[in-house]
Design a protein that fits this description.
Helix content is 54%, strand content 6%. It contains 49 helices and 19 strands. A ten-stranded mixed β-sheet has the order 8-7-6-9-10-14-17-11-12-13, sandwiched between helices. Helix 8 packs antiparallel against helix 20 and helix 37 packs antiparallel against helix 48. It is elongated and about 170 Å long. Its main location: membrane. This is Solute carrier family 12 member 5b isoform X2.
Length: 1512
């Protein structure tokens, strides 16, 4: 730790010392002036914390922090901020009375308020009807689901409420501070609307009790005498009128005296409790003495109480039968002979008890539901009824009818409001003594109590009350009594008045709570248009919020039906509860550091279950109400998001955003995006001036116009300096960028870096911009302005470095030119063209840009034209057709034009311009100037060079080429152009290459002194008299420019001319530009050249072809010249012919065969095929036949090779299939056709000599030594090639030792045979060929060498004679033994190695060796492998078994094609004009060579002795 106190105790402070030379003791406070020393000392006196004096100014000490926390204000966060703002505006207010500390406990503060809010109108007015309609079982399920939902919500709410100090404000503050202002506002509004509609429901319940059960005579719209829809409409109108009156009265009460409402709350609660106790007392009484509530039934139909006076058709009065009121209701007169209703006459009238009692067993009848359609009559189950199905229903107004169509989901929606109110305790959190303790205990206890009551009521109602009475919603069958009141004890009026007062109290509570909730939301300021409702009276009462609440409540009153209003408020409450559960689940799963609830009995799974239940109940109640409620919440959410969400409350949604962003970034890291998902992720590089303002604001306009790509946008700039000194400037620049991005409506990020120089800062932005997988893939930078001026030279160099760096990073580079002329976002083009000059393919970037631009309103009406350039050998008509087809598949509408660029002579202007550039580069290299001097010299050299050009070029040439120096895109001041490339970017035509000139002689510069040393003096520049000594023998002013640079300059000027001509009227020109040189020095590493990589293998194979095969084939005594010379002739011809044929199939690009060392190696392999086949007909053919044979065999081999490698895709590193098997069976096919019967028993000249065997063994040694190069030449460089060399050497060694052993064993005399040494020793090189680069282990290579040698030895001994005698195959050199049998063994070994190859052995390199087993394009595994092995190409995704099958197919197809080709070639060779030798002159050089006279002398000295065959 460094001490920041300076050593100035002796008064030796410098001019900047803060003690002004005074001793440090007199100024004990760091960084303080003397004037403030006394104040500071008083302020910190006694603190004993001088070490932290500076920190105390900005960070509080722990003691003051603890004091602040202890004095925490229970005001809601929004209200507190609102009051502070008002205090600041209105000044200090008179001191208020001290607020009394909250003293409410769990019982009075939470439990009883929750009980009062939960028990409500539904229990008294609809519970019995719900049990009757849904049955005990169905109703119990409904109650259980709803109570479980509220219990789970209470658990989640308890966890949130105990996570820190609970602010006053209840559920809105819990949700908003947990899920953020957007969700908080949306759910707060939903909770407010639910509470408001709950008030409407309570008022409707109150009016229903008043008009139906207490004073029916008070109805304004009389119902008596009305039936059906008319009676229903009259009832609803009464509800509307009285509801509006009651609402107005309640609103007035709340406005005038809310304190009286709170005082009456206990009275209303007492009414509720007494009513419930009366119900339980009535249930107990039914077990002892059931009350008498008779119900009259006609048949099984329930009759209205007002339709009869006696439950009988007739009565006996004084022995006289008299009809009753009931008779008169169904008949047309009092007479017993009157015409009556058919159903009335067919069925009897019975009277049953409406409340049979809990012991009656009626529970079994009421167990299941009985859902009714609207207008259906209430019928008793199990009672007989005589009904004629064909007769119409009459006198239906005499029966009790269903007023609505009922179904399960309707019951859920109507019932759910009876379990709401669980937030009452949390809403009073500001009045609680210990909210963290009281809220969980009180709320859960209240829900447990109410749930027990509800569930027991469901069972008890079903066990005590008759089903038809339960289904009688308004008690029309029991003299208009409230059904639940008929059960109560001691009187039904206890329930009637108790429920009436409880509904009044609940309505007042709703009208009291809803405006305060709206006021809290308004004061938070998250919904701008609601801010007016945050104001109220001087005492804080929400006047305006009360008016709005009353207005919304009136909507529910106008609906007028309790059954219709209940599902509405169910939606809003369910949504609120759903988000409470979501808040708890998210906080738990995100494990945010501040999530530490004291309530421990929660779990995220319970919260998710509660959330799922809420969502399910929403759609169960009413799917269309649910969609409307969610739509309202969504609209509020989006409104807050766009207009008002300026709060940061540390909410969980913020945590979700962070977690989701982290997860998404980690997913993006898994691999590059698929082509379909590619989009421009743009890094915009801008520069700022001294005031940190952006110099190119139109760059951001263009970025906005490209935003249809919906990709990442980073706007970056660099500030020169150090981080400590220039941090403020960087912050200012960042603010400037943000402001400009907001103005241009660019959604993205700003990034400012501070660096010692702007060049490094820009480089840092390119390197580190973005995060993880979300990185830029495109860089946009404007074309440097005035780059030709010396003062802007550094800007030009920075631009060039950006080009190079983006090239290295494989980034696309967008370079808008004349950016100041680009349109702003407010401009519109009504017509015009966007021209695309598509010169080289860039992956589709050039096509994507105009598409994105045309999505923007600025460019929408511009049409797209695409120009492409055709060269001399291109078919421009076909190119245009292909381009139109290509655009059709890309779904791009554009005009197409193909521009033909004819070759023309390079102009003198181009030549001189290139020369000037190279002279300047070379001079500056040798001048050893400082940076500033070099800039000045550049300008002076440029001026001199321009003068030289003007002197040397005629006037007409100057007018023809008006482009200025170095411009690679035509300057168009009124239009725009953009250079695009991906991944190769923009480059000025400039090169530093000063290699030996090869161009035509340039116009002479001033003569240089003799001797090669020249001096150059510039008398114009500021460094007058500076002398430059050129290198010896290099005349700078007579140097010749590099021919490549001349061609590049020529192309640039030609393109400029064509673009200006064709796109003169275009609004925007997009074109590819060439990339910079791959290395900045324009020099190559010699070791990267193919000469150093492949030429050693080429030379080794050359030795094998010309020396190895040549000497080996010279084993015949009289055919030494023919063996060696014809091998020389055939090999030379075959190599040249193979270069052309193989080049056509494999190395043909752009109509040209590209030649390199690899081509020569492949051609030598084809030559080896011909020479092996040559061995089968050695000594029996003429030179012309051999050339024709080579002429025909090379194309057949090239086609076979191309087909097998392209379609079968095999592994054959050592050529066992394509070289050895093909050559063997081709040669056998030829010799089969050229069969000579006279040679079958041997020939006098078919023998060897001592000297010829020595020469042949020399050929064997050449082949043996260089065979590892043959097998490894085309394998992958590195480990694969290393393995190929080792395995080949081991196989050859094994076959050599085995050959010597077997040769001695199989010889009767136990001696060695030279034919075995010459041929069998090479078998190991062939046997390991197919698996030479695989991991087969040295032991396997050794075993393969032994097996190949054994097969070859036995083939020479037994198989060759057998083939000659039985199959007419005269294999002169035994190629079937050395190449056929061993090739088949090699293929078998290769297939086994492929089957056993797996990643456990090979690791990721498995897919380098077996490239076709690599995953296909788009496979995620390929992306993982490419991270381990950069450059790994996609394969075919084959399994080992599939690859082995393709190997087998290649073996059989190669043998078949080669044998057929050999047979056909044999027939061609039999033609007489090819001069085949006669049988007598076979194996003899004399017909073809001038031989010495004694060349056959050894033949005359010794007897002829046939030797065993030898092979190549």
């Amino acid at each position: 730790m460094l001490n920041n106190m300076t050593d100035c105790e002796e008064g030796e402070g410098g001019p900047n010392s803060q003690g002004d030379g005074n001793p440090k003791e007199s100024s004990p406070f760091i960084n303080s002036s003397a004037a403030s020393d006394v104040e500071k000392s008083q302020q910190y006196d006694g603190k004993n914390m001088a070490l932290f004096e500076e920190e105390m100014d900005t960070s509080p000490m722990v003691s003051s922090l603890l004091s602040t926390l202890a004095n925490y204000s229970n005001l809601p966060t929004g209200s507190k901020e609102h009051e502070e703002a008002e205090n600041n505006e209105e000044g200090a207010r008179p001191s208020k009375k001290p607020v009394k500390a909250p003293q409410l406990g769990t019982l009075m503060g939470v439990y009883l308020p929750c009980i009062q809010n939960i028990f409500g109108v539904i229990l008294f007015l609809r519970m019995t009807w719900m049990v009757g309609i849904g049955g005990v079982f169905g109703s119990f399920i409904i109650v259980f689901m709803c109570c479980s939902t509220t219990m789970l919500t209470a658990i989640s709410m308890s966890a949130i409420a105990t996570n820190g100090v609970v602010p006053a404000g209840g559920s809105y503050y819990m949700i908003s501070r947990s899920l953020g202002p957007e969700f908080g506002g949306a759910v707060g509004i939903c909770f407010y609307l639910g509470t408001t509609f709950a008030g409407a429901m309570y008022i409707l319940g109150c009016i229903e009790i008043l008009l139906i059960y207490i004073v029916p005579q008070a109805a304004i719209f009389k119902i008596e005498g009305l039936e059906g829809p008319e009676a229903e409409a009259a009832l609803l109108n009464n509800m509307r009128v009285y509801g509006t009156i009651v609402l107005s009265f309640m609103a007035l009460v709340v406005f005038v005296g809310v304190k009286y409402v709170n005082k009456l709350a206990l009275v209303f609660l007492a009414c509720v409790i007494l009513s419930i106790l009366a119900v339980y007392a009535g249930v107990i009484k039914t077990a002892i003495d059931p009350p008498v509530f008779p119900v009259c039934l006609l048949g099984n139909r329930t009759l209205l109480s007002k339709a009869y006076d006696v439950c009988a058709k007739v009565v006996e009065i004084d022995n006289e039968t008299v009809t009753t009121k009931l008779w008169r209701s169904f008949c047309d007169s009092d007479s017993l002979n009157a015409t009556c209703d058919e159903y009335f006459m067919n069925n009897n009238v019975t009277e049953i008890q409406g409340i049979p009692g809990v012991t009656s067993g009626i529970l079994a009848e009421n167990l299941f539901g009985n859902y009714l359609e609207k207008g259906m009559m209430l019928e008793k189950r199990g009672l007989a009824s005589d009904t004629d199905p064909d007769s119409p229903v009459t006198s239906s107004n005499r029966y009790v009818l269903a007023d609505i169509t009922s179904f399960f989901t309707l019951l859920v929606g109507i019932y759910f409001p009876s379990v709401t109110g669980i937030m009452a305790g949390s809403n009073r959190s500001g009045d609680l003594r210990d909210a963290q303790k009281s809220i969980p205990i009180g709320t859960i206890a209240a829900i447990t109590t109410t749930s027990t009551v509800y569930m027991s009521c469901v069972v008890l109602f079903g066990a005590c009350i008759e089903g038809v009475v339960l289904r009688d919603k308004f008690g029309e069958g029991v003299n208009g009594n409230l059904v639940i009141g008929t059960l109560a004890w001691p009187s039904p009026w206890v329930i009637v008045f108790g429920s009436f007062f409880s509904t009044c109290g609940a309505g007042l509570q709703s009208l009291t709570g809803a405006p305060r909730l709206l006021q809290a939301i308004s004061r938070d300021g998250i919904i701008p248009f609601l801010r007016v409702f945050g104001h109220g009276k001087a005492n804080g009462e929400p006047t305006w919020a009360l008016l709005l609440t009353a207005g919304i409540c009136e909507i529910g009153i106008i609906i007028a039906s309790l059954d219709s209003v209940a599902p509405i408020l169910s939606m809003f409450f369910l949504m609120c509860y759903m988000f409470v559960n979501l808040a708890c689940a998210l906080q738990t799963l995100l494990r945010t550091p501040n999530w530490r609830p004291r309530f421990k009995f929660y779990h995220w799974a319970l919260s998710f279950l509660g959330m799922s239940l809420c969502l399910s109940l929403m759609f169960i109640c009413s799917w269309y109400y649910a969609i409307v409620a969610m739509g309202i919440a969504t609209c509020i959410y989006k409104y807050i998001e766009f207009c008002g969400a300026e709060k940061e409350w540390g909410d969980g949604i913020r945590g979700i955003s962070l977690s989701a962003a982290r997860f998404a970034l980690m997913r993006l890291e898994e691999g590059p995006p698929h082509t379909k998902n590619w989009r421009p992720q743009i890094l915009v590089l801008v520069s700022v001036d001294g005031e940190q303002n952006v110099e190119q604001p139109r760059l951001l306009s263009l970025t906005n116009q490209l935003k249809a790509g919906k990709g990442l946008t980073i706007v970056g700039t660099a500030v020169q300096g150090t981080f400590l000194d220039n941090y403020t400037e960087a912050q200012k620049a960042d603010q400037s960028l943000r402001k400009l991005m907001e103005t241009e409506k660019v959604k993205g990020f700003s990034q400012v870096v501070i660096s010692s120089n702007l060049r490094d800062g820009t480089s840092h932005l390119i390197q580190v911009g973005g995060l993880g997988g979300l990185k830029h893939n495109t860089v946009m930078v404007s074309w440097p302005r005035n780059w030709k001026q010396p003062e802007c030279h550094q800007q030009f160099r920075n631009f060039i470095e950006v080009v190079r760096e983006t090239t290295v990073a494989s980034l696309a580079l967008l370079v808008p030119k004349n950016i100041s002329s680009y349109p702003s976002n407010g401009e519109r083009f009504t017509e015009g063209h966007i021209d695309v000059w598509w010169i080289v393919h860039d992956g589709g970037m050039l096509m994507l840009l105009p598409f994105l631009l045309r999505q923007h309103k600025v460019w929408r009406k511009c049409k797209m034209r695409i120009f492409t350039v055709a060269q001399m050998d291109d078919n421009s008509i076909q190119m245009k057709k292909d381009l139109i087809t290509f655009l059709y598949h890309l779904r791009i509408d554009a005009e197409v034009e193909v521009v033909e660029m004819h070759d023309s002579d390079i102009s003198a202007y181009t030549y001189e311009k290139t020369l000037v550039m190279e002279q300047r580069s070379q001079i500056l290299k040798q001048m050893h100037l400082t940076k500033n001097e070099m800039e000045r010299e550049i300008q002076s050299i440029t001026d001199s060079s321009r003068g030289s050009i003007r002197r040397k070029n005629p006037p007409n040439l100057r007018s023809q080429h008006s482009a200025e120096e170095g411009t690679s895109v035509a300057e168009k001041p009124e239009e725009e152009s953009m250079a695009v490339s991906n991944p190769k970017q923009v480059q000025l035509i400039h090169s530093k290459n000063t290699s030996t000139p090869t161009s035509p002689t340039s116009p002479m510069s001033p003569a240089a002194p003799a001797g090669g040393a020249a001096t150059w003096t510039d008398n114009k520049g500021p460094d007058k008299g500076k002398t430059l000594l050129a290198e010896p023998n290099k005349d700078l002013f007579n140097m010749k420019p590099n021919q490549t640079d001349v061609r590049r300059m020529h192309t640039a000027l030609r393109l400029n001319e064509v673009i200006i001509k064709k796109s003169k009227e275009a609004k925007l020109v997009l074109l590819n530009m060439p990339g910079p040189p791959r290395n900045r020095t324009n020099q190559t590493n010699p070791m990267d050249n193919a000469v150093y990589k492949d030429y050693p293998f080429f030379t080794d194979i050359q030795v094998m072809i010309f020396l190895g095969f040549g000497c080996l084939l010279a084993f015949f005594r009289l055919y030494g010249f023919g063996g060696m010379v014809f091998n020389f002739l055939t090999a030379t011809f075959a190599i040249q012919w193979a270069i052309l044929v193989q080049g056509y199939f494999q190395f043909n690009h752009d109509g040209k065969i590209h030649l390199g060392v690899i081509n020569l190696i492949n051609a030598e392999f084809a030559c080896a095929v011909v020479l092996i086949s040559f061995g089968a007909v050695l000594g029996k053919t003429s030179p012309l036949q051999l050339l024709v044979m080579a002429l025909l065999e090379v194309p057949v081999f090239a086609v076979t090779e191309w087909a097998v490698l392209k379609y079968l895709r095999i592994n054959d590193a050592g050529g066992s299939i394509l070289i050895h098997l093909f050559a063997c069976y081709f040669g056998l096919g030829v010799t089969f056709v050229l069969y000579r019967p006279q040679l079958n028993e041997g020939h006098a000249k078919e023998n060897t000599s001592y000297q010829s065997d020595i020469l042949s063994v020399m050929g064997t040694l050449f082949l043996w030594v260089f065979w590892p190069s043959f097998n490894s030449a085309l394998t992958l460089k590195g480990d694969d090639q290393h393995r190929a060399i080792l395995h080949t050497f081991i196989g050859l060694s094994a076959s050599t030792l085995t050959a010597f052993a077997l040769s001695a064993m199989l010889n009767k005399n136990g001696k060695l045979t030279m034919a075995d040494v010459q041929n069998v020793t090479l078998a190991g090189g062939v046997t390991v060929g197919a698996s030479v680069d695989m991991m087969i282990s040295p032991a396997a290579a050794y075993a393969l060498g032994i097996m190949g040698c054994t097969a070859c030895m036995l083939g020479y001994k037994y198989l060759s004679p057998f083939l000659a005698q039985r199959f007419r195959i005269q294999d002169q050199c035994g190629i079937h033994n050395l190449h056929g049998l061993t090739g088949l063994i090699s293929c078998t070994a290769g297939i086994c190695a492929i089957l056993m190859a797996n990643e456990d052995v090979y690791g990721p390199s498995l897919y380098e060796i077996f490239t076709h087993r690599a995953p296909v394009e788009g496979d995620p595994k390929l992306q993982d492998l490419q991270m381990l092995i950069p450059g790994l190409q996609p394969g075919l995704g084959r399994t080992a078994q599939e690859q082995a099958l393709f190997q087998v197919a290649a073996v059989f197809s190669t043998i078949g094609v080669s044998a057929l080709g050999g047979v056909l070639t044999g027939f061609v060779l039999k033609l007489p004009y090819l001069a085949p030798p006669s049988d007598d002159f076979c194996f003899d050089d004399e017909p073809f060579f001038n031989v010495p006279p004694d060349y056959d002398a050894p033949l005359k000295l010794t007897d002829t002795s046939a030797t065993e065959d030898s092979a190549a």
